[in-house]
Design goal:
heterodimer; A: 8 helices; B: mainly alpha; 2 domains
Chain lengths: 193, 350
């Protein structure tokens, strides 16, 4: 049990996908200009990431391994993720048309979020079981959501401050990401890497 | 004679930025003097190097930004950052660590974000974390030992100066900070055995307790002058105690509660760092939550993490959360209903 808790803490804080492993920077910079949008995006990504982590594990274990096609894992994971994103898109469109419009192009872009594919591939590399890949996916997506939401609140404040012209926009955003990464190094040692 | 016509607010006080900064510097002086009394000239030399390089760095970046240099420097905020860095960095550390830390604090943490009052991170703590991560060896092995513990006199002013400027190395006796020491030794020894080691014969708190009390005095002065509010410090102590009281009852396995409070940078952090008006939360409720979070994170990182005194990282992590806290602790506008915060659907465009 404590292994699972440690793994959960480790993926959320110690090995945060955004700030320590630097995966998924495109939505991090792209959708973080408004807090409300970021919360919507974080929820959508959490949903897709957890589901894709589990289903890509199932596809790998039940289809690719028996058929001896493990070298096709990257391409088949992309397919699984694309299907899941399409599914999420339909759900969001039906349940919240406004959120659908706000997220706009970024919803299909979850497909190309490197964190989503990264989690699926790392599950295989780390020999995760069904249950650990569920925890790994959930932890990774919660860590992603946490950082994305906090960062978007910071950016709302940054947009109003007197940043020197050459650093306006993405530049100061990336510097801030670096500082956040520095702060997250404080979690080192809380759980094994 | 024309009548004076001014718009509100009609406050005639002299609460200017430079007055506040100067009072905070004055409040930090007892702590700085206590540190120098117990741990030698290193702290004073460091403070001078930090202040000078912080002021020079700020002047340089102001010139690059084409802002008035002297007028901005007069608010003394750069001096304050230098003093705060000087009391946090280890006394035997070489001069270039001070220069890098002050330059980073002024240029990257303060002025790239727009200067005074707009920085998202606490400049002193961000710079401390940067040099701690980048130069772990000098940052962990440069703490000096009080005479009552080592039995050796502290280095004289000239010895300390030439050591810190790297002219001539001085073989001073260094030791781990009390928190670090307790954390590593308690894994093998019981609390009673630990009390017999040379570091503890003079008392587990020798020196550091007085330093913390001196900072407490300065903090109470700031409270009395109403420069800081009580919410941040009380939040920090509450957060730390909420975890420390139940989990640190057994001195043989965990750090005692009193050491959490008085053997590290807790008091300094509570009154001088958490109360930073720019990088902390804004409303009173927000300030309390901010301090509470710093306390909780400090305990977690101290107990389960790699860093023995975690104030810097805890403050940085809460700096990240401060705008989010502000978003959800907006006070009600007088006469208006409570604002709806949280996920809002964007307004329909016509």
């Amino acid at each position: 049990m404590s292994d699972y808790v440690l793994m959960f803490v480790s993926t959320i804080l110690v090995n945060n996908f955004l700030l320590v492993q630097f995966l998924g920077l495109c939505p991090f910079m792209g959708v973080s200009n408004k807090l409300e949008t970021a919360i919507g995006m974080a929820l959508a990504t959490t949903f897709v990431l957890t589901l894709s982590s589990v289903s890509s594990y199932l596809v790998f274990e039940w289809i690719l391994v028996p058929l001896g096609l493990t070298y096709l894992k990257t391409i088949s994971f992309i397919l699984v993720i694309a299907v899941l994103v399409q599914f999420t898109e339909m759900v969001v469109r039906k349940t919240s048309p406004l959120l659908y419009r706000v997220l706009g192009i970024f919803l299909p872009l979850i497909t190309t979020n490197c964190a989503v594919l990264g989690v699926a591939l790392l599950n295989i590399k780390k020999d995760n079981t069904f249950f650990t890949s569920l925890i790994y996916g959930l932890g990774a997506s919660l860590g992603f959501a946490l950082v994305l939401i906090l960062f978007s609140a910071m950016r709302e404040r940054l947009n109003q401050s007197d940043v020197p012209k050459p650093f306006k926009g993405s530049a100061i955003g990336l510097i801030t990401a670096g500082m956040m990464s520095l702060a997250f190094m404080g979690f080192a040692g809380l759980a094994p890497a | 004679m024309s009548l004076m016509q001014r718009s509100s607010p009609h406050v005639m006080g002299r609460n200017t930025t430079s007055r506040i900064m100067l009072w905070v510097i004055v409040a930090a002086l007892p702590g700085l003097l206590a540190l120098s009394y117990f741990y030698g000239w290193g702290y004073l030399i460091n403070t001078v190097i930090c202040v000078v390089s912080a002021v020079l760095a700020e002047a340089a970046i102001l010139m690059l930004r084409k802002r008035p240099v002297l007028k901005t420097l007069k608010d003394a905020s750069a001096v304050l950052t230098g003093v705060l860095l000087g009391v946090t960095l280890p006394p035997f550390a070489p001069w270039w660590i001070m220069v890098i830390a002050s330059g980073f604090a002024m240029v990257f943490v303060k002025h790239l974000y727009g200067g005074l009052g707009q920085n998202l991170f606490n400049p002193a703590m961000a710079a401390f974390a940067l040099v701690l991560i980048s130069f772990p060896l000098p940052m962990t092995t440069s703490w000096s030992t009080p005479e009552a513990i080592s039995g050796e006199p502290l280095p004289s002013f000239s010895q300390q100066l030439s050591h810190n400027l790297e002219w001539q190395a001085y073989d001073g006796i260094t030791m781990a900070t009390p928190l670090d020491h307790y954390k590593t030794k308690i894994k093998r020894l019981t609390a009673d055995e630990l009390a017999q080691t040379p570091e503890y014969v003079a008392g587990p708190f020798y020196g550091i307790l007085w330093v913390n009390l001196a900072f407490l005095l300065g903090g109470l002065l700031l409270l009395f002058l109403k420069i800081i509010s009580w919410h941040g410090p009380v939040g920090l102590f509450t957060g730390l105690l909420v975890l420390a009281l139940p989990f640190s009852a057994d001195a043989d396995s965990a750090m005692p509660v009193l050491m959490h409070l008085f053997a590290g940078a807790t008091v300094f952090g509570a009154f001088f760092i958490v109360t930073d008006p720019a990088s902390s939360a804004t409303s009173n409720r927000g300030k309390f939550i901010f301090g509470f979070g710093v306390g909780i994170l400090t305990y977690c990182i101290r107990t389960w993490g790699n860093f023995p005194d975690a104030i810097a990282f805890a403050v940085l992590l809460m700096n990240i959360s401060a705008p989010f806290i502000d978003h959800y602790t907006r006070p009600r506008t007088y006469g208006k209903p409570k604002p709806v915060s949280g996920y809002k659907l964007p307004e329909e465009s016509p």
